[in-house]
Amino acid sequence: xxxxxxxxxxxxxxxxxxxxxxxxxxxxxxxxxxxxxxxxxxxxxxxxxxxxxxxxxxxxxxxxxxxxxxxxxxxxxxxxxxxxxxxxxxxxxxxxxxxxxxxxxxxxxxxxxxxxxxxxxxxxxxxxxxxxxxxxxxxxxxxxxxxxxxxxxxxxxxxxxxxxxxxxxxxxxxxxxxxxxxxxxxxxxxxxxxxxxxxxxxxxxxxxxxxxxxxxxxxxxxxxxxxxxxxxxxxxxxxxxxxxxxxxxxxxxxxxxxxxxxxxxxxxx
Length: 269
What we know:
Layout: E1 10-11, E2 16-17, H1 20-24, E3 34-40, H2 42-45, H3 53-64, E4 67-74, H4 78-91, E5 94-98, H5 109-117, E6 121-123, H6 125-138, H7 144-147, E7 151-153, E8 157-159, E9 168-171, E10 174-177, H8 181-191, E11 202-208, H9 212-225, E12 230-238, E13 241-250, H10 253-266
Parallel strand pairs: 3-4, 3-5, 5-10
Antiparallel strand pairs: 1-2, 6-7, 8-9, 9-10, 11-13, 12-13
């Protein structure tokens, strides 16, 4: 929104009234909330399992107006998980973890999160009740291994799992979720409405049949003209010819339109 003009339009920093030009400028937009993701699992690092959760989370956060700023992958190692969680939760508004909350001996994420926060962990009565009812309906024994999935750090709230019941949990700004993609997606769908978002990230792109080396200089100059937008170039080859997809991202549709008009003029078809 534009700054209000008139008798009360006063710049308290410079101790003078706003100029007419300053009055017509938009107030700087508040930055969107930030997030990081921690992917946990030896199977990811070994190449045995291809992670799809990061791609899904990035898209959902973008639509919700939360900037995914960092992704880390760590092994099933308690110290590595603790170190990464503590670093990320201190740097970002939200942290999402995937993996390591199942029933086997190497599912150590819950204990590591508790240790990172310095709180206790136990089999929570509400989680136990959910799982007991689920296995009773399924006609399967609620054995010791399955009871491990009720381990919840003290002070955490449960994240609903409509797929297989075993809950994730939220502790302060850390959201701990399963690594199985359809369960992870369901948990994200349950958590996102509880989080404060910002302006959704918008984007437009222009495909030009020129290599990056040819478009780099004018594209960089355009980026300098629009410091509030993110401009990126992504090369491709088609039938042996080089080309570049030029992408402009931001939260202000009018600014993106203006930058795209300038971009199209720089590289006419």
